[in-house]
Amino acid sequence: MTGAERTETLEDEASLQLDGNGNLRHMLTLKGLERKLLVEILDDAEQFLTPAGAMPARSQALAGRTVANLFFEPSTRTRASFDLAGKRLGADVLNLDVNTSSRKKGESILDTIYTLEAMQVDVMVVRDASAGVPAYIARHVLDHVSILNAGESDVSHPTQGLLDVLTIRQHKGSFENLAVAIVGDIRHSRVAMSASQALATLGVGELRLISPPVLAPEPESVPGARIVDNLQEGLADADVVMALRIQRERIGNLDGIPGIDEYFANFGISHESMKQAKPDAIVMHPGPMNRGIEIEGSLADGPNSVITEQVMNGVAVRMAVLDRVTRTMAAR
Ligand code: CP
User: Fold this and answer.
1) Distance, CA 331 to ligand 1 centroid (Å)?
2) pLDDT digits (tens, 9 = 90+) for 76-113
3) What Å distances lie between residue 173 and 176, 282, 313, 316, CA to CA?
4) Among 276, 17, 62, 42, which Cα is nearest to 173's?
5) Going by CA atoms, what residue is nearest to atom 4 of ligand 1?
6) Total-model pTM
7) Per-residue b or e along 139-159, where b marks 16 or more CB atoms closer than 10 Å to that residue's CB
8) How many whole angstroms from 30 Cα to the centroid of ligand 1?
9) Cα separation of 306 and 169, whole Å?
10) CA 183, CA 277: separation in Å to the nearest integer?
11) Cα(321) to centroid of ligand 1, in Å?
């Protein structure tokens, strides 16, 4: 992306994602998304959940629509759940294999997008390592096409933020009296950014972002959050503890980043460190996990862990978002 194109993406993404009637047209960021809309999406997602072992929820709400998954970075959970979400709503789903696509031959991202538009794709789900790409695409697509951000550099991962707050709501009810601790590489984490934005909108009691100083966020990027560099202090009486992996792929110079043993000793979420949190604190992780580095394996598999519930909620949230943006399309 050129400098001029990047400047273009700095315009207000929050308003870009709504149509003239305030309906969700694209899902680009949780920043600025009003509480009512956020809660409606969570409530919709609940409707798409069935008990483990039961048949998954299905509908034909997207019959005749086409969803394309364009993942220009690796993914397991997000890509698979968007794929399942589209199919369970009756859409045709195209998973573009980026490694064998014509972008490898020098095709620009917009030419790829225009090609898919010509094939009557309605929704494009985009993951990219560069900041601003989902909004840039959203500014260039036809009026009836929706863009969903499936992970944007270290900036934003809105459907992950939604599934995280849905999981917290299921276990803890309201947010006002909760202390939520997010631990790890906050500085390079789009998951932390989107979760922080959603939690702030939902009125969380206290948000603590815990990391070694080298992995701490810029304070202005997380208004209202408490930035903490001591794990014991940050976990004290926490209701929710979310571990994050170190995003090595986004760290140019690894100098100053603690080694594995030092990191786990000082910032690892373990049975020992969880003694600081409330006994009923839930343990979360967006995945992919590095067991023994940011989280103790047996804790991730233990009774307080809600990690597999996060994955299950991921499909439901993506169904809710796909359903909503296509309803906006139909209303146009
Ligand atoms: N949480 C998350 O985004 O996982 P994937 O990279 O596997 O999609």
Assistant:
1) 32
2) 999 999 999 999 999 999 999 887 777 778 889 999 99
3) 9, 13, 16, 18
4) 42
5) 77
6) 0.94
7) ebbeeebbbbbbbbbbbbbbb
8) 17
9) 12
10) 13
11) 17
